[in-house]
Write a structure and sequence with these properties.
The chain is of the alpha/beta class. The chain folds into three domains: 143 residues, Globin-like (Orthogonal Bundle); 101 residues, Elongation Factor Tu (Ef-tu), domain 3; 126 residues, 3-Layer(aba) Sandwich (Rossmann fold). It is built from 13 helices and twelve strands. β9, α11 and β10 form a beta-alpha-beta unit. α5 packs across α7 and α6 runs antiparallel to α7. The longest helix is centred in the N-terminal third of the chain and has 31 residues. It is globular, with a radius of gyration of 22 Å. It comes from Fredinandcohnia quinoae. Pfam families: FAD_binding_6, Globin, NAD_binding_1. GO terms for molecular function: FAD binding; heme binding; metal ion binding; nitric oxide dioxygenase NAD(P)H activity; oxygen binding; oxygen carrier activity. In the C-terminal section; belongs to the flavoprotein pyridine nucleotide cytochrome reductase family.
């Protein structure tokens, strides 16, 4: 428990953190990686370069300071981050390193504003927050290893099949090298894969949603090829997978993780995906039709049919289940799309189309896609009267705010 004096000091820093949060986290990563370059084997380099990780960490620190006297308010966020940490292999011994460099960064950025009493208060507070993460992650590690078919850290899998789903997305079917059991998962969860190409001294870890229903035999991930250059580095691993990984090759993966999962409900269920955000929805959809749900709506928005993955799979589900409605929005349909009448609307999703397609204001919404897409969808859903606790979403990468 923190003393009231410590709580008061931490709360007094909230306005400063709101103003300087990203400066502090940027300096934090510079210091930490400078002293511990081995941690670059765990952290996503692209998120670092694009500033997403710095922004997400700044938001987390701000939330912790704001709720320092009621840390239970941020437990859902701690659990969400804990899943990512367990999937990446973050261990208790990493937390003192993070704490040391976070305090150094606060000193560097705030200068005289970081008095001894402020630093001491933050040192004490960080210890409490770190213990919360370590405790939750300990349980997640135990659960991952002890479950039927589970394992510790990373395990080698073979690419048993590689399937091109569209011009930009390819699926990889993964089976364990040892031929043993594999852990089940909840629809919407992801796995981390660890790869190393010959052009880099560091390993790279990326998290990909499981895009098929649990089956006990294989995992399927479906990877979008991102553009890769010095200005857009997040395509490094996806291009490596598309170009270099072939059937029969081995990839190390961690056990399934994640809090963005489908939960059966009596109310209508609506899945709204944009682009590659369709991947977790495939697993959710296949589970939903097995549940006692009377009304399921599947909405997908993408550029056109050339980049539309899983259309046949979804259509097959629709044809086999009378309680599923399927709508497609193509922003720039091709002539072939127009001739085949494969889409429902020409253009981006609008509040008018969502109002027509969503069965009722009681619907439970699951959405995933690029951040601008989800921000737009979230805003429209709220304007339609959908309550925040009915809207569930997932970010590919560090968590950000939609509202």
């Amino acid at each position: 428990m923190l003393q009231q004096e410590t709580i008061d000091i931490i709360k007094s820093t909230v306005p400063v953190l709101e103003e300087n949060g990203e400066k502090i986290t940027k300096r934090f990563y510079e210091l930490m990686f400078g002293n511990h370059p081995e941690l670059l084997n765990i952290f996503n380099h692209a998120n670092q370069k694009q500033g997403r990780q710095q922004k997400a960490l700044a938001s987390a620190i701000y939330a912790a300071a704001k709720h320092i006297d009621q840390l239970e308010a941020i437990i859902p966020t701690v659990v969400q981050i804990g899943h990512k940490h367990r999937s990446l292999g973050i261990k208790p011994e990493h937390y003192p390193i993070v704490g040391k460099h976070l305090l150094l960064a606060i000193k560097d950025v705030l200068g005289e504003g970081a008095s001894d009493e402020v630093i001491l208060a933050w040192e004490e507070a960080y210890g409490v927050i770190a213990d919360a993460f370590i405790g939750i992650e300990k349980n997640l590690y135990i659960e991952a290893e002890s479950q039927d078919g589970g394992w510790k850290d990373f395990r080698p899998f073979t690419v048993s099949k590689k399937v091109k789903e569209s011009d930009v997305i390819t699926s990889f079917y993964l089976k364990p090298v040892d031929g043993g059991k594999i852990a089940s998962f909840l629809p919407g969860q992801y796995i981390s894969i660890k790869v190393k190409d010959g052009n880099d001294s560091f390993t790279h870890i990326r998290q990909y949603s499981l895009s098929d229903a649990p089956n006990g035999e294989y995992y399927r991930i479906s990877v979008k090829r991102e553009r890769y250059n010095s200005e857009k580095p997040d395509g490094r691993v996806s291009n490596f997978l598309h170009d270099m990984i072939q059937e029969g090759d081995h990839i190390e993966i961690s056990a399934p993780a994640g809090e963005f999962v489908y939960v059966p409900d009596e109310n209508p269920i609506v899945f709204i995906s944009g682009g590659v955000g369709i991947t977790p929805m495939m697993s959710m959809l296949k589970k939903a039709v097995q549940s006692d749900v009377s009304d399921i709506t599947f909405i997908h928005a993408t550029m056109n049919g050339n980049v539309h993955s899983f259309h046949k799979e979804v259509t097959d589900v629709v044809n086999e289940n009378t309680n599923v409605n399927y709508y497609i929005a193509y922003e720039q349909p091709t002539n072939e799309d127009i001739q085949q009448k494969q889409f429902s609307v020409d253009g981006r999703l609008t509040i008018k189309t969502l109002e027509q397609w969503i069965p009722s204001k009681d619907s439970i919404i699951y959405t995933c896609g690029p951040v601008p897409f989800m921000q737009a969808v979230y805003k429209m859903l709220r304007e339609l009267g959908i309550e925040t606790d009915q809207i569930h979403y997932e970010f590919f990468g560090p968590a950000l705010e939609l509202n």
